[in-house]
Amino acid sequence: MARKILIGGFKHETNTFSRLPTGLDAYRARAFHVGDAIVEAYGATRTEIAAFLDACKRHGWQPVCSVVGDATPSGFVTKEAFDTVAGLMLEAIDKGGPIDAILLQLHGAMVCEHTPDGEGSLLRVIRDKVGPKVPIGVTLDLHANVTHAMAHHADVMVSYRTYPHIDTYEIATECADLIARTLAGEIHPTVTLAQGVMIDGLDHGRTTTPGPMTEALAMASEMAKAPGVHSVSVLAGFAKADIPDVGPSALVVGEGHDPRYREMATQIMTFAWETRHRTSLTPLMAAEAVRIAKEKGRIGAPVVIADYADNPGGGGYTDSMGLVKAMIDAGLESAAMSAICDPDAAQACHKAGVGARIPLAVGGKIDPLFGPTIEAEGTVTAIGDGRFRIEGPMQNGVMVDMGPSAVFKVGGVEIVIASKRYQNYCLGFFSSLGIDPRQRAVLGVKSMQHFRAAYQPIASEVLIVDEGNGITSNDISKLPYSHVRRPIFPLDLD
Ligand SMILES: [Zn+2]
Q1: CA of 451 to the centre of ligand 1 (A)
Q2: Is 477 exposed, middle or buried (0-12, 13-18, 19+ CB in 10 A)?
């Protein structure tokens, strides 16, 4: 009889400094699929879930699809959301069992209103349910803040090795195949964790330029060749989380218990410490970036400017208007920005209709600390439902639903306005509303790094703007940390 493999996912990167709570509505707005709907949503994608489903076919397993929930990064996950998703997983174990193994796609940086260790709590309740003998395989984002409970309750734990995250399918395949070998009795994996003594490090995990992360990953792949070592992961951590387990870490999946695993993981963390001041980031002020873009950008070879500090992928409110204002003030022509989240402004554009010239207040509405609303007269040049399928290398095949969306043109700057917060990591965030990003001279994107997967190939130059006007700014010195373990860099040590 075919082995039964529980498949599920529960992702969140919680920015504990955000004032937006993450309830069930935030999951439903992004991704919330139960049972067989999971196959429909992810079967034809390059995601972890697709890799798990393919592994079931390859190994002759019967998948038991539980729930996949994913919400755009924001504040604390509510207890209701946690209990609902965890409850659906436990229910699937009851109804679809007996379960032979479990494959979960997690992020690894979930903070709930009732616990700072979302994934550790989830894995504990699942472990309590299935007992110690059912192997649990977990994939993590490389921005996970890994806790001891997470490592303890999993048999296999593997994180992405790319940022932008374009290897999600491959990492999940690695995880599933290690679980297959475990089920066959061929291996007996354990997970060893070493945490660093830093809130932030490893160049935020960037792998697009040589630096601390690429060097740490090279160390890890050498270590993975050692006898008894099945997998080594390097995690840059997610700094915008005021929790005891914040920061970089390393994971070794090894055969049984061996002190070498801790030595390896610790060696990677020592390297993270030694390289803590090295960064590949050279942020500019918005006016300076726009000045360069105006000079160098041309149609067919746009300059791409990333709004680092207000990245929805790290919990940014996605309505900070500093970069847009600089683009308008500079009198840019053939310029576009995607996407500002402002449901009221999107609705006003829909109401006015394409071609209407209207005064509109856009953005700056969630936290006045990060800059004012722009009040401008402009033209509604497009409206749409905000739905399209990702064609870029990241999350390929996944449906995006920005909600009612519009393009509002002020001077020579087209502003894409969405009703939901989305990081721009696919050209579709422009093209789904009729803007061909290749045919613009300057593009602004709400993203800090993931945009590179789709935009680096079409850009003549990439510039990063960080004026500190958002809760994902690289400058963490102003954040009021009070729950992190101490001592920790940069608060105490150097
Ligand atoms: Zn990440």
Answers
A1: 12
A2: exposed
